[in-house]
């Protein structure tokens, strides 16, 4: 087991290149199952969530070849199984995408309910509603979600809640269904557009991705493709905050500035300067950030996946800030850890009130989930002294080469092995 040791107080300066988007990769990899030929996927991030996806594909019978560090070739033609065990699906939320992909390919999917970060209740009722609208029968049998259909038939589906996962799963199930599926109140995140572009590059007929009405006309078959995944919006946002919170000056390369508009707007409110270029951004941090209020919303609103990182910036801002998470019930579990470092934050349900302090102080802390872990790194970078972060396997799920990227711009972060006798067992 490893931990990160971060020495704070260094101003970040230089260039960071953003990797492929985690949340696009974990949708595109299962989508390969729908294809009748070999697919080559480029700009795949080197993160553990992708390794789990590849492992599941391999165990299902796909042939997987690593072409280089960020390019994979997958031949799904030999896949015979439509079952993903709890052992694999518990490791990540996106394992639920195997339900839509296998239902679309085999008219049958048996997948244990997904795991993923703990932000309170994470239901999949809207996914199931979509599968049922397409004609599948869905039962929970022996701890597995078992969905089957004689033939999926396109249908209108209205989502009661804007859900990224349900939108993706319904697209996957309907791509080869007979006739037209219309998803109303669909999610609009960049990774949904990326999945639709990937499927269309194989011959699918999906219109409207990126708006709240997506139309999918079913096609008989999908051919092979070569496709490059979009840059990661949240990884980019995280390094933008790293530059801002250290008063640094960092060029963030390989980004789509359009995907970052809400993050740019909030950073500018806190006093950062953000220069925009075609596929890069320069962030120059202020001497001391100013307070601001944030409400997280589905895209194009401010992403919930960026609120813990912004909480760090606002913890050292002048004045009082309020963050409201309107997406998840319980995404402030990291606040206790920031408090150990001297932050002054009061949480009431979905609202956190942050009274800015001048400095955070390095301390032993733990990542409570993926983005919370990223927030601990940011806190360590701007704090006085040394911060030791445990449970970094959460961070490895979504950030490629974080140590290398931060050290290249003047950060001081090390991955250190914790001998087994010093590992404190996690609370159940
Ligand atoms: N919801 C329902 N019923 C459903 C599905 C969702 O009520 O059937 C509710 C959820 O409880 C939540 C809201 O709808 O309150 C939004 O959930 P959504 O389905 O959009 O989230 P998700 O698909 O499980 C993805 C990302 C998360 C990100 C959310 C919101 C992936 C693999 N995960 O989760 O990313 O927080 O969308 O944008 O794409 C992360 O990357 O760190 C991460 C957690």
Task: Give an overview in words.
- This protein has 428 residues and is an alpha/beta fold.
- It folds into 2 domains: 205 residues, UDP-n-acetylglucosamine1-carboxyvinyl-transferase, Chain, CATH 3.65.10.10; 207 residues, Enolpyruvate transferase domain (UDP-n-acetylglucosamine1-carboxyvinyl-transferase, Chain, Alpha-beta prism), CATH 3.65.10.
- The chain is 30% helix and 25% strand.
- The protein has 14 helices and 24 strands.
- The strands form 6 sheets. Strands 22-23-1-24 form a 4-stranded mixed β-sheet. Strands 2-15-17-16 form a 4-stranded mixed β-sheet, with helices on one face.
- Strand 10, helix 6 and strand 11 form a beta-alpha-beta unit.
- The longest helix is centred in the first third of the chain and has 13 residues.
- The radius of gyration is 21 Å and the shape is globular.
- The two termini are 18 Å apart.
- The relative contact order is 0.15.
- Bound molecules: uridine-diphosphate-2(N-acetylglucosaminyl) butyric acid.
**CATH architectural name of the largest domain:** Alpha-beta prism
Which of globular, elongated, flat, extended, rod-shaped describes the shape?
globular
Approximately how much helix is present in the residues? 25-40%
Strand content: 25-35%
Low-confidence stretches: none
Distance between the termini: 18 Å
Major beta-sheet overview: 4 strands, mixed
**Number of distinct helices:** 14
CATH topology of the largest domain: UDP-n-acetylglucosamine1-carboxyvinyl-transferase, Chain
Radius of gyration: 21 Å
What compounds are bound to the protein? uridine-diphosphate-2(N-acetylglucosaminyl) butyric acid
Oligomer: single chain
CATH superfamily of the largest domain: Enolpyruvate transferase domain
The tally of structural domains comes to 2
């Amino acid at each position: 087991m490893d931990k990160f040791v971060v020495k704070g107080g260094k101003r970040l300066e230089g260039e960071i290149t953003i990797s492929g988007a985690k949340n696009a990769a974990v949708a595109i990899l299962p989508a390969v199952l729908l294809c009748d030929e070999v697919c080559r996927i480029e700009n795949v991030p080197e993160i553990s969530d992708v390794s789990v996806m590849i492992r599941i594909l391999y165990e299902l019978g796909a042939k997987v070849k690593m072409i280089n560090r960020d390019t994979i070739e997958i031949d799904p033609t030999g896949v015979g199984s439509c079952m993903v065990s709890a052992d694999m699906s518990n490791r990540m939320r996106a394992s639920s995408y195997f339900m839509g992909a296998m239902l679309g390919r085999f008219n049958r999917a048996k997948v244990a309910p997904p795991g993923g970060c703990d932000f309170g209740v994470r239901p999949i009722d809207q996914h199931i509603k979509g599968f049922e609208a397409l004609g599948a029968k869905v039962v929970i049998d022996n701890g597995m979600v078992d969905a089957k259909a004689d033939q999926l038939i396109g249908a209108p589906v209205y989502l009661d809640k804007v859900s990224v996962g349900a939108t993706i799963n319904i697209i996957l199930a309907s791509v080869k269904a007979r006739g037209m599926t219309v998803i109303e109140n669909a999610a609009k995140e960049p990774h949904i557009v990326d999945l639709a572009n990937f499927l269309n590059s194989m011959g699918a007929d999906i219109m409207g991705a990126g708006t709240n009405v997506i139309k999918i006309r079913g096609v008989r078959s999908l051919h092979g493709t070569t496709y490059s995944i979009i840059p990661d919006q949240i990884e980019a946002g995280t390094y933008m905050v790293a530059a801002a919170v250290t008063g640094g000056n960092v060029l963030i390369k390989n980004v789509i500035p359009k995907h970052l508009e809400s993050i740019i707007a909030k950073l500018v409110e806190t006093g950062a300067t953000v220069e925009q270029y075609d596929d890069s951004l320069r962030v120059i941090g202020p001497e001391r950030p100013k307070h601001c209020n944030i409400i997280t919303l589905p895209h194009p609103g401010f992403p919930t996946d960026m609120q813990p990182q912004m909480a760090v910036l606002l913890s050292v801002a002048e004045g009082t800030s309020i963050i409201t998470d309107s997406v998840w019930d319980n995404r402030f579990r990291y606040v206790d850890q920031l408090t150990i470092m001297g932050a002054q934050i009061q949480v009431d349900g979905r609202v956190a009130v942050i009274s800015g302090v001048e400095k955070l102080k390095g301390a032993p802390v733990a990542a409570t989930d993926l983005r919370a872990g990223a927030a601990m790194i940011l806190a360590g970078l701007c704090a006085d002294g040394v911060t030791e972060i445990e449970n970094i396997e959460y961070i490895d799920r979504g950030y490629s080469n974080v140590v290398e990227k931060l050290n290249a711009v003047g950060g001081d972060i090390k991955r250190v092995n914790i001998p087994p006798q010093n590992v404190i067992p996690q609370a159940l």
